[in-house]
Design goal:
0% helix; mainly beta; 7-stranded mixed beta sheet; 4-stranded antiparallel beta sheet
């Protein structure tokens, strides 16, 4: 069992940066592929970014490319999402997720493939 706890959300102006963290407990994150998703108000949950074990591979939603960076620190059992040049449309609850991965290059943008989820952290971008 893996417990995930997000932090780092907040209220910022357009153009600002935030770094979200997701700390795991219960199991070593090094055995898991990890992802970030978000759910804007009144909309479905959507993929943001994913990272494979050992950081071999990352992939991003088009909306995140060039502005967001996913990274992981397995020594700290933590995955991060650095968000730069934030836009009003980035307003959402952000969730981290984990799935056990035997293949080191495995990543997925499908929410239904993730086993463990955090409780979410609110990001609000507004002027």
């Amino acid at each position: 069992q893996v417990q995930l706890v997000e932090s780092g959300g907040g209220y910022v102006q357009p153009g600002a940066s935030l770094r979200l963290s997701c700390e795991a407990s219960g199991r070593a994150l090094s055995d898991y592929a990890l992802g970030w998703f978000r759910q804007p108000p009144g909309k479905e949950r959507e993929f943001v970014a994913a990272i494979s074990r050992l950081s071999y591979r990352t992939n991003y939603a088009d909306s995140a490319k060039g502005r967001f960076t996913i990274s992981r620190d397995d020594a700290k059992n933590t995955v991060y999402l650095q968000m730069d040049s934030l836009k009003v449309e980035d307003t959402a609850v952000y969730y981290c997720a984990a799935v056990g991965a035997r293949r080191p290059l495995y990543t997925t943008d499908r929410a239904d493939e993730y086993t463990y989820w955090g409780q979410g952290t609110q990001v609000t971008v507004s002027s």
